[in-house]
Amino acid sequence: MAKQVSDRVKASRLRKKLESGLELSEDEEAWIENYEDTKPQKAGRSASERVVHIEERAAAEGDHEHPEALAAAVRAEGLRADTLLNIVTSKLIQCNDQYMRVFEYMMERSLKLEEAHIALLEVVRDSHLARIKAEGEALQAQYDTGGGDSDMAEMLELLKVAKELRAQNATNPKKKVKDKGKEKPLGSID
Questions:
Q1: pLDDT at 59 (0 to 100)
Q2: pLDDT at residue 84 above 90?
Q3: Are 10 and 2 contacting, i.e. CB atoms less than 8 angstroms apart?
Q4: Is 60 exposed, middle or buried (0-12, 13-18, 19+ CB in 10 A)?
C-alpha cells in the first residue's frame, strides 16, 4: 500500500515537471509511461459501485494481486468495526437503563424515608404537646381544689385581687386608690 502511495506521489511530481516545461530524463520518461500503462482503466466499472473504505476502492480497481480477496477482507473489517460499535452502544444503553432503575429505586426509598421521618417528628411533637396540656390541666385542677404549692396559691390569690381591682377601676374610673404611706415611690421626682 505504501508503494502505491509513493508511486502516485512520484507520478504527480513528474507530471508537474512536464507541465512546467522541463524535460524528463530517459529513466523518468520510461517510468511514467510504465506507470500510466499499468494504471487500471476506469471505463469498464459499474456506476453503482459502493465504496465503504479507501482500501475497498483500491481493491476494486485492481491494485492488488487478488482484488476480490482484499475487498472481502476490507469489507469484513468494516463489518467487524460496525458490529463492535453496535455491541458497545447496546451495552451502554443497557448500562444506562440499569442506572436509571437504580436511581428510581433510590428516589422511591428516599421519599419513603423522608415521609417516615416527618411522620415520626409529628408523633413526637403531638406527644409533647399532649403531655404539656395534661400537666397544665392537672396543675389547674390542683389549684382549683385548693391543693398544691402554698406559694403558688398565694400568687394566684394576689392575681385574682389584682384582676378585681382592675375591673373596679375600669367600671368606676373616678375612684382612685389612695396611697397609704407617706413614702414616695422609687424614681419619683417630687
A1: 46
A2: no
A3: no
A4: buried
